[in-house]
Design a protein that fits this description.
Layout lengths: L1 H5 L3 E6 L2 E6 L2 H11 L15 H9 L10 E8 L5 E3 L2 E3 L8 E7 L8 E2 L3 E5 L2 H6 L9 E4 L6 H7 L8 E5 L4 H14 L3 E3 L5 H8 L2 H5 L5 H5 L4 H13 L7 H10 L7
Amino acid sequence: MTPLFEGAVVVEVRSGAGKRIELRDPDTLTKFVDRHYPSGLYADSEDSVEDSRSLALERYRNTKALGGLNFEIVEYRLTGNQPIRIGLHEQHVQYNPDGLGAFALRDRESVESLITFSGTVATVENPSVFLWFDWVAAGIDLAVLTYGRMSRRMISWLASESMLLSQVVHFGDYDPVGLNEFTRLDQALGDRVSLFIPSEIEVLFNTYSNPLLLTKSSWLLPRLRSSHRPEVQRVLQLMAKYGGGLEHEVLVVQQQKLAKVPAEKR
């Protein structure tokens, strides 16, 4: 509105004990509205476009005008016998041998967009582990890729009524950032979430830990030390003992090495 006041298209005038806005140049106002609001000042209250970016373009000629996306695409691997229900349709691993797929989490839920699952879900920080780790051997039915920090939308979905029958296992880096992601899940899911810690984790820390993973996120340590979860405290002790963090791609390294060892010698 500032340009309209500066150009005296509209002016503020006294009206009794208060003030009112008076239109002085209707033609210029009409041109201003056409330029900035393609759908007009009185667009339908029923949004004609579900996507926030498209709606912002329709209303304001600017896809960023309404903020970020109102959905996100989640990549998944279905590895167990439990089907995932996407809207009204079930997806089964037997119909998709590699189990790879994707679904959309939307801010505005409907029967057609609801994602439901009742097995064991892995939240996976990095693509390499997502693609190459043996999820069946780990007892995981569905792995979802988070690409690092999880959105509030994803955590809300995992905590939603449609996911109450599922258990969640977090697979992230064994460093302050990865542990902080686990505590975010813990706050939302409580006992429904656990942190995956391989039985040989101390050997892996001794061999592969990286000091940079600890120093660059050390500001998170005071908060993590107050966690009630024993898994967090165990990893904190290992980070302190070996002076570094451990990237969770080490799970793939360990898996590949074990595959080369005869079964009778494992």
